[in-house]
Every structure is written in C-alpha cells, then in structure tokens.
Write a structure and sequence with these properties.
The protein is an alpha/beta fold. It has helices at about 15-35, 50-60, 65-80, 165-170, 185-205, 255-265, 265-270; strands at about 5-10, 40, 80-90, 95-105, 110-115, 120-125, 130, 135, 145-150, 150-155, 175-180, 205-210, 210-215, 220-225, 230, 235-240, 245-255. It is globular.
C-alpha cells in the first residue's frame, strides 16, 4: 500500500485577500519541496476580521470563485497537489455568508465543498464573545468522504470538532482521514484543541488533520495555532509551532489504519440497537 506525504499549514490570516493568497502559495511551494501530495489550510484562509458589507463584497460563489480561490486552484494544478482550504462563500442571504471547506484536486478543480454545520455562538468568561450566526448561514448536510491520493477525506470545520456524531457518521461513510480547518481561540485551544483532535482520531480510528490560524489577527482576536496531524491510534505525528507561520509534514500509511481497525473493530461493537 502506497504511503503518501501530506502537509498541514498554519498562518496568521488578515483582512487582505492578496496577502493571504501569497502566504498560501508560499506554503504550497514549501510543501511541494518536501514531496507532499496534499496540503491542508485553515478556516477562513481568504480573509479574517472583515465585517459586514466588506466581507460580503470580498466573498464569491463557488461558481465564480474570485481571485483567492482561482489562485489556489492554479497553484494546485501547477504543483500537482491536492488542497483542503477554508473560505467564505456567498449565500442567498444578503447579510450572511457560508463558512465553507473546499477540496481541490491536483488538476486545480474543486471536487467537493462543505458548509459548516455547527456555528460558534459562545460567550467565554475572561475570553471572547463570538456569535458566528450573526454573519454566517449554517450548512444543512454532511458531505460524503472524497477519495484523494492520501485516502478518503471527510470534511468538517473548526467548531464541528466538538461534535463526535459528525466524525462517527463520516467514518461510517468510509472516511479514513478527518480534517478540520480551524481558527480556534487561544483560550479554547489551550484547554481543548489537542485532546479533541486525539479523541476524534481514537474513536473513529482515523487520521485527523487540523490546520489552524495562529497569532493575533487584530485587537480583539487571536488564534491558538498548533496545526497537527494525528494518527488512528491517537498519536500526534506532526505539529506546527504554536506561534509561527509554517507547515508540518507526515506520511499517511493506510496499512496502519487497517491494522488498528482490524485489531480493535469498535465499529462492529457499537450498540446500534441502543444508540441508533
């Protein structure tokens, strides 16, 4: 069975679409130099911190993707690399957008997209108050896993990580890799980021790839970083620095996944008669 290298990226996204695009292209080049066949980028890689009408004007429908996504697609084709990336997508609502996860193949074509199901409406004591539903339309469906050179990839986004039922359903549909492009806050990241990622890997016996925004985006918002790749046993096999832009690369060996699932067939042991 072929072993495929993948890369997980992190950077401090800002309000400039062109600056964020240049950062993504630079990280894609670095991943290609390390022989990665697929790269995973954070949530909101196109822009972050833009509010209201400005965010609406900067976003595009997937049928007319605009300069950011067009640039990433062109680079994916040039490098022969698959890409997972989080963006803003226009919705039918004039004042709200979709938070969308796009999968691009090595020909530069968008092969799948997923709209975030669970919106981050929280008020954390001594932390941020974030009401994602004020600016974002929730998705209404799960997207089947997509076959990639590294394995079958199931799509989530950030806050979705806290909902085990989403991960388990993707596993039931054949996912071998779960991916969560994210912009975790510093407070929640310090407390929960790694333990949640490892939990989703262990309970689904899947690789988990989580690219994260990192650093201070503006006076009100900072992201935790620590992008990582976790194997199906729950071991962190690659991790980015907690403070800096960069990538981390690891091999995906599906024979490891098959062995773990065979030796401990938890999906066969689930009590669907009790928990349908």
């Amino acid at each position: 069975m072929q072993i495929v290298k993948i890369a997980v990226a992190q950077f401090c996204g800002g309000q400039s679409v062109s600056t964020n695009l240049n950062t993504c292209l630079r990280l894609m080049s670095q991943a290609s130099e390390q022989a990665a066949k697929m790269i995973f980028f954070p949530e909101a890689s196109d822009f972050l911190g833009n509010a209201g009408e400005e965010a609406i004007k900067l976003s595009h429908p997937l049928t007319d993707p605009g300069p950011f996504l067009e640039g990433v697609c062109a680079e994916a084709k040039q490098l022969g690399m698959w890409c997972s990336i989080g963006i803003h997508e226009q919705s039918p609502f004039p004042d709200r957008l979709y938070n969308t996860h796009v999968l691009i193949n090595d020909q530069g074509s968008i092969v799948s997209s997923y709209r975030k199901l669970h919106l981050f409406d929280v008020d954390i004591q001594n932390g941020p108050q974030l009401l994602e539903s004020k600016s974002t339309v929730a998705g209404d469906r799960l997207i089947p896993p997509v076959q990639t050179p590294a394995g079958k990839v199931g799509l989530g986004i950030c806050y979705d990580l806290r909902f085990a039922e989403l991960a388990l359903q993707l596993r039931k549909q054949g996912a071998e890799i779960l991916t969560y492009p994210s912009a975790f806050t510093t407070e929640t990241g310090e407390a929960h980021w790694e333990v949640l990622l490892r939990s989703r890997a262990i309970e689904t016996q899947s690789f988990v790839v989580a690219a994260a925004q990192v650093g201070k985006h503006n006076e009100k918002r900072s992201s935790y970083g620590h992008s990582m790749i976790v194997d199906p046993w729950g071991k962190v096999i690659a991790e980015c620095d907690g403070q800096e832009e960069g990538i981390a690369v690891a091999p995906v060996d599906l024979s490891v996944l098959e062995r773990i699932r065979s030796e401990m067939p938890v999906m066969n042991h689930r009590r669907y008669d009790i928990f349908p």
